[in-house]
Design brief:
The chain contains eight helices and 15 strands. It is of the alpha/beta class and 273 residues long. A six-stranded mixed sheet has the order 10-9-11-12-13-14. The chain has a five-stranded mixed sheet with strand order 5-6-3-4-7, covered by helices on one side. Helix 7 (218-226) packs parallel to helix 8.
Length: 273
């Protein structure tokens, strides 16, 4: 498997002087996701936790509804494949020929880049996710929330080497970090975290909060909703659509979580002063 970062040549400019040096860059490579040996999607990602990434991605695509739908996820064994380490084959537990034909008939543009996980949808309506609003009624203190960024930062080993990866962390209501992931794409990091919990058969995640580096877009809110996560927080700002849908889906959405301050955009009742 490829490394999460690579050595690259760089010319550093310091006080007007140019010096040749070696730096580390986060790896970005394609991951082809196949369903029963049929190409379904190509995701640009940082290698690592590929099986979890595929599981989380297929949950967000509504190919999987729960762990019961998942059969196996294996790396490619085709000797003719040029880069089998960049191909995973997923077999569904209910993977009948009719089911697969229906999935591929409704398939969207299957190439996603590292900055956008939902590009290529055929219609605006296809972005919508059906389901009742999340009903979790627990609360947590603001002081616990403000400790979350540092706890996730301590788990970002590859970021320490490159400075070029996003991270997502799943936390319990008492602030314990359950699992985390790094990737060049924010949505990929979220898929890795959710996919890992899906494979452990621990969805829905009604007693957890999701924290992500960077901003919060619609796709991250949607992924959290499908996993049953009632609270999403981020270092930076949410988009207008993320706010709109979080409000509709009963999710608490928090932005600009830095130091001792943050903004609550929706369902503030889950945060205690």
């Amino acid at each position: 498997m490829a490394e999460a970062f690579r050595g690259v040549g760089v010319t550093r400019v310091r006080d007007g002087a140019l010096v040749d040096d070696v730096d580390r860059a986060a790896t970005e490579e394609p991951l082809e996701v196949r369903l029963h040996n049929r190409p379904f999607a190509v995701v640009m990602r940082t290698p690592g936790a590929d099986r979890e990434l595929a599981a989380g991605f297929l949950l967000s695509e509504r190919v999987l509804k729960s762990a019961d739908d998942l059969g196996t996820i294996e790396y490619c064994t085709d000797p003719a494949a040029e880069h089998p380490e960049n191909i995973v084959n997923v077999k569904l537990a209910n993977g009948s020929a009719e089911t697969l034909d229906q999935l591929f008939a409704g398939q969207r543009n299957v190439t996603t880049n590292a900055s956008c996980g939902m590009c290529g949808r055929v219609t605006i309506e296809s972005l919508k996710t059906d389901g009742p609003p999340l009903a979790s009624r627990w609360t947590l203190p603001a002081s616990m929330l403000t400790s979350v960024p540092d706890r996730l930062r301590q788990a970002q080993a590859v970021f320490d080497q490159t400075g070029g990866l996003h991270a997502a962390g799943l936390f319990t209501r008492d602030g314990r970090l359950v699992t985390s992931a790094e990737d060049v794409g924010r949505h990929n990091a979220v898929d890795k975290v959710i996919g890992r919990m899906l494979m452990r058969e621990e969805l829905p995640l009604a007693d957890h909060l999701l924290f992500v580096s960077g901003r919060t877009s619609f796709e991250i809110v949607q992924k959290a909703f499908l996993a049953g996560i009632p609270m999403v927080a981020a270092v930076s700002a949410p988009s207008s659509l993320a706010i709109e849908l979080a409000a509709e889906w009963g999710m608490t959405l928090i932005g600009f979580l830095r130091g001792a301050s943050f903004n609550i955009y929706t369902h503030a009742e889950r945060v205690a002063a």
